């Protein structure tokens, strides 16, 4: 186990001016703080809705797949494609390697309200941790070999999106799954819930929406960008990122506004310090 902490100059930059909110992890006027993960291990944060970004910490990884908060915004978890699990209890200022999954194709993960972690591989294997990411055991397997995204939706339902558009749903905390719908694409990258609606994003910027829990999907808009890699919901808006660092925002998924850019190539994931395990 080891800890990764900010360099003094980085910590000083976070303490200056409005970035104090990063240390306190209080919601800004734009909603929760946004976090961008770069494949070279840098963790960038924005406290102004993605307009500007500052480095928060650096991890010894090149394959982060996502960041999520548990029941408080100070309890953060990062998983990597190669199965490493990192956890921060101080809002991301310091990180410790806490455990690992015996997998080389982790695609996404979800934290449940009881703090259990569910990690999904691209090949459809689902693992569960009941001890904060220290150890994982196999839970089940989906009938998909190209899973790309995994979320917790309304009423505690879990959803998985495959790159080829298949949508799977679980009402049993991941123990069993049903194929419920299909987005007619071949390059899906992310699924997210906004209120009662589900949204699916493609690598080339097309956005689809489902109003019936993933059963049927319709195109609603497109982003004039390519190499899109990540999507989250923050402050009531959809926020997406491209591998080249550009970040875009939309309230409905129809019209998109450029916000800013993480000044790094190979943005692999967007995250938020908004607790994901709370609410319905």
Briefly say what this structure is.
The chain contains two helices and 25 strands. By secondary structure, it is mainly beta. The radius of gyration is 17 Å and the shape is globular.
Written overview of the protein:
This protein has 280 residues and is mostly beta strands. Helix content is 5%, strand content 48%. The protein has 2 helices and 25 strands. The chain has helices spanning 8-15, 20-24, and strands at 3-5, 34-38, 42-46, 54-58, 64-69, 76-80, 84-88, 94-100, 106-111, 117-121, 125-129, 137-141, 147-152, 158-162, 166-170, 178-182, 188-194, 197-202, 206-210, 218-222, 228-234, 237-242, 246-250, 257-261, 267-272. The chain has a 5-stranded antiparallel beta sheet with strand order 1-8-7-6-5, with no helix packed on it. A 4-stranded antiparallel beta sheet has the order 4-3-2-25. A hairpin with a 3-residue loop joins strand 6 and strand 7 (84-88). The protein is globular, with a radius of gyration of 17 Å. The relative contact order is 0.15.
């Amino acid at each position: 186990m080891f800890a990764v902490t900010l360099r003094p100059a980085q910590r000083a930059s976070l303490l200056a001016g409005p970035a104090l909110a990063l240390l306190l992890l209080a919601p800004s006027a734009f909603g929760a703080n946004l976090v961008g993960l770069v494949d070279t291990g840098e963790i960038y944060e924005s406290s102004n809705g993605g307009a500007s970004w500052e480095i928060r910490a650096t991890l010894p990884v090149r394959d982060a797949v996502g960041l999520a908060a548990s029941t408080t915004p100070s309890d953060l978890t990062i998983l990597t494609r190669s199965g490493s699990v990192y956890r921060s209890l101080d809002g991301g200022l310091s990180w410790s390697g806490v455990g690992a999954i015996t997998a080389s194709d982790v695609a996404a993960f979800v934290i449940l309200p009881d703090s259990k972690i569910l990690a999904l591989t691209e090949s459809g294997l689902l693992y569960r941790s009941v001890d904060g990411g220290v150890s994982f055991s196999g839970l089940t397997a989906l009938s998909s070999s190209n899973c790309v995204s995994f979320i917790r939706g309304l009423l505690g339902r879990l959803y998985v999106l495959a790159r080829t558009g298949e949508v799977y749903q679980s009402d049993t905390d991941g123990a069993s799954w049903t194929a419920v719908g299909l987005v007619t694409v071949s390059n899906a990258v992310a699924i997210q819930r906004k209120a009662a609606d589900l949204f699916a994003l493609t690598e080339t910027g097309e956005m689809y929406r489902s109003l019936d829990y993933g059963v049927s999907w319709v195109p609603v808009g497109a982003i004039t960008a390519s190499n899109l890699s990540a999507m989250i919901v923050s402050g009531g808006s959809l926020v997406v990122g491209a591998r080249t660092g550009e970040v875009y925002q939309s309230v409905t998924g129809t019209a998109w506004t450029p916000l800013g850019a993480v000044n790094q190539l190979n943005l692999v994931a967007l995250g938020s310090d908004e607790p994901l395990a709370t609410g319905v």
